[in-house]
Design brief:
It is a single chain. 23% of the residues lie in helices and 23% in strands. The strands form two sheets. Strands 5, 6, 7, 8, 9 and 10 form a six-stranded antiparallel β-sheet that branches. It has two domains: 90 residues, Uridine Diphospho-n-acetylenolpyruvylglucosamine Reductase, domain 2 (2-Layer Sandwich); 119 residues, Uridine Diphospho-n-acetylenolpyruvylglucosamine Reductase, domain 3, CATH 3.30.465.10. It is built from six helices and ten strands; from the N terminus they run H-E-E-H-E-E-E-E-H-E-H-H-E-E-H-E. The longest helix has 14 residues. Strand 5 and strand 6 form a beta hairpin. Helix 1 packs antiparallel against helix 2. The model has no long low-confidence stretch (mean pLDDT 92).
Length: 222
């Protein structure tokens, strides 16, 4: 895609792809475009709110064709400005808020598989329902999301006992910059099969892909 109105044409394309409820006009979502300290801000072409992995792929592919950046945002609790759109080039803000499903819970194996937009509190409640406990916790548990925690390798209140997010992720899935899917949703505690590619995404701040789901460790409930 080229020409003087690339952002406008991309916005129209994304609206058609995502349908009603799948996008927001930046003017209607001012809280999503500035960080908590008011230091960093930017106006995206559109706020995309995909609710399936396929929709995430379509958004990423459309942005790649247009040469427009993708900024992924979870619960927007970061204080470092990493989840706000850029001001120096056109960008699309990709919110994972609608990727919020608990995919599976395995109390026998002490694992839970969730989509990236699930809040930490949501996962904690799902674990508690089967008499298990999520090791990860922090004050913004009702807003902070799994995808954001993975992408920033967040620590939190229990970091000394259970480790940072990196120590609690068994597997993950992500959409790469060209729209391909990396499927590493393994739930093995000991996985010696080749390179541990999930580690590239943990703490990667979304630079090599949009995290869409993760398998997390559970623990005996205290």
């Amino acid at each position: 895609m080229s020409g003087p109105d690339v952002p406008g044409r991309l916005a129209d394309e994304l609206r058609d792809l995502l349908g009603p409820g799948g996008w927001l006009d930046p003017a209607d979502a001012p809280g999503l475009t500035v960080d908590w300290r008011g230091t960093y801000s930017g106006t995206p072409v559109l706020v995309a709110r995909p609710d399936t992995v396929g929709a995430v792929q379509e958004v990423v592919q459309a942005c790649a064709r247009a040469g427009v950046a993708v900024v992924t945002q979870g619960g927007h609790t970061s204080l470092s400005g990493g989840s706000v759109p850029t001001s120096d080039r056109p960008s699309v803000l990709l919110s994972t808020s609608r990727l919020n499903r608990i995919l599976s819970v395995d109390p026998a194996r002490f694992t839970i598989t969730v989509e990236a937009g699930c809040t930490i509190e949501q996962v904690q409640k799902a674990a508690a329902a089967v008499d298990r406990q999520l090791g990860m916790d922090w004050g913004a548990r009702g807003t902070a999301t799994v995808g954001g925690a993975v992408s920033t390798n967040a620590g939190g209140l229990n970091v000394l006992r259970y480790g940072s997010t990196r120590e609690n992720v068994l597997g993950l899935a992500a959409v790469l910059a060209d729209g391909r899917v990396f499927d590493g949703l393994r739930a093995l505690r000991k996985d010696n099969t080749g390179y541990d590619l999930k580690q590239l995404f943990i703490g990667g701040e979304g630079t090599i892909g949009v995290v869409t789901a993760a398998v997390l460790k559970l623990y005996p409930r205290q």
